[in-house]
Every structure is written in C-alpha cells, then in structure tokens.
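Lab notes, practical 5.
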Amino acid sequence: MVASPEISRLNGRKSRGPRTKRGKAIASRNATKHGLLCQAPPLLVTEDLSTFEGLVQSLIDHYQPQSPVENFLVQQVAMGMLKQYRLWNVESAIANTQILKAQQRIKFPDQVIPPEVNPLEGFQEYSEKRVSMKALLEQERAKLENLRMDLEYDLKYLPEHTEAETLKALRESVGDNYFHGEGEPSAVWHYHGAFEEWLCESWDKEAGISRASLKEAVARAQKLLKLVKGRNREIDEAIAQIDGHAEAIQQSEAVSKGLQQPELFNRYQREMNRELYEAIDRLEEIQQQRQNKGSIGSFRQITDQTV
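Output from the prediction step:
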C-alpha cells in the first residue's frame, strides 16, 4: 500500500538525520560545501557567525538536501529567518527606546533652576534653566572632593598647628566647600550645615579666635570626612547608572534607525515573509515527492516479489 502524502510528510519530519558515521561525516560537510558558508555569509557586524552557522546546519540536518536546488532553498530559509530576526530586533528597539527614555525621565529627572531676574530689566528674558542630574552630581562630587582634601589636610597636620590654628582651618574648610542642590540635601550636607553652624556659634569675633572644643571639632571633622567618602561612592554609582541608561538608549536608537519609513518597512516585511514561506513550502513539497517516490518504489518491489 502506498503511503498517503500526509503520512509521508509526518515521516519526513521525524527524521533525525544520518545515523551512520559515514552519513554523519557527509552531512557535517554540507554547510561548508554548499552555498552561504562556502564564502563569507552576509552578516551584519553585530551578528554572530557561529550562531548563523548553527542555524544553517540545523536546517540541513532537518531537511537533508540532496540537490543544488534543495541546498539553495535551505539557504533561502536561513536568510529569511535571519532577516525576520533583524526585523524583530528593530521593532523591539523602537519600543525599548521609548521605555528607556520614560524610565530616564522618572529615575534621573532634570533639575529646574529658577534664573536670576533683575526687576529693573523686567521679565521679558525670564526662562527656567534645566540641568541634568548627572551635571548636578558631578558638581556635587567636585565640592565633596575639595572638602575631603581640605579636611584630610587639616587632620594630617593637626600636631604641627596650634589649637587656634586648627579650629580656624576647620572653619574655613567647612565654610568654603558647600553645595546647594535642588531638592532634599543628603545626609552629608545636613551634617555639614550643623558642623558649620556650631563652628560659627563658637567663633569669638572680637578676639578673632574660636571658643570651640578642639577634641569635639576633630571628632566632628572625622565624622564629616566619613560621610563625604560615603556620599562620593553613592554619586559614582548613580553616575554609572545614568551612563549605562544613556548607552542603552543610544544602542536602541541605533538599531531603530532601520525603521525610517514605516510603510516601506512593512512592505519589506511582507515580501520577506512571502519568500520565506514559499521556500519552506517548496522544500516540503520536494521532500514529499521524494517520500512518495520511495513509497511507490517499495510497493513495486513487493509486487514483483509476489508475482
């Protein structure tokens, strides 16, 4: 009995490729003997050669091409799948760009700084100023670095200075390095403000010296220095996150540039899918014909033996 086309198709799909050593050796050379992989495949610089070779080889193992036409169809299917993957990348990049930009506005919003307005000149030139969070963090880090160096210097040369000189130096170091950003100040600036206020209250203007306790002043300076170093680490981590987010947006925008004209993009996608499905249908048709031919041959052999 001749197998039906449906059964032949199912049997063909159950194939796991060659089983003998010789058959496996021959099949393993299919990808390099025929078509795309005998030369440099048309890959983009961002695409992996080994991944594409694996795709081609998996198609060869599945379809077991036995003619130049079948090898070409396998190549066409491989390229169709690769192009479809590229289109998916473009579509996801477009969505990712919008998502990442929205996340950036929420997580790292620009700070609005009111401009200085001269009432005598009127309000014609009034416009708000917007500063990126990264720029503000970099400004704060610069102030913190100056404060750190000044405090470390004052504490390092503490034995060489008199009590009055040390208290005066600490007061100057704290007073000269202050950062006023928008929003709620961090813990380091809260403590900085309290330390500066304590030093100012302890200052004797008439005598030109500080009445503060040197021991307490040194203890406060050491605590402030510790907070400064901790805040610097926080700023470095925040800037790294901002840079990573910006890099992700740039990568998504670079990929999404492939969709400059949506109508042409959709037309190309339809045409590419049509070619892919036609190649798959043609391969399966050839395999079905081969299966049917084999089934007829087996039927003839059985008939000859019974006659």
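Observations recorded by the TA: The mean pLDDT is 80. The beta strands are 111-113, 129-131, 203-204, 209-210.
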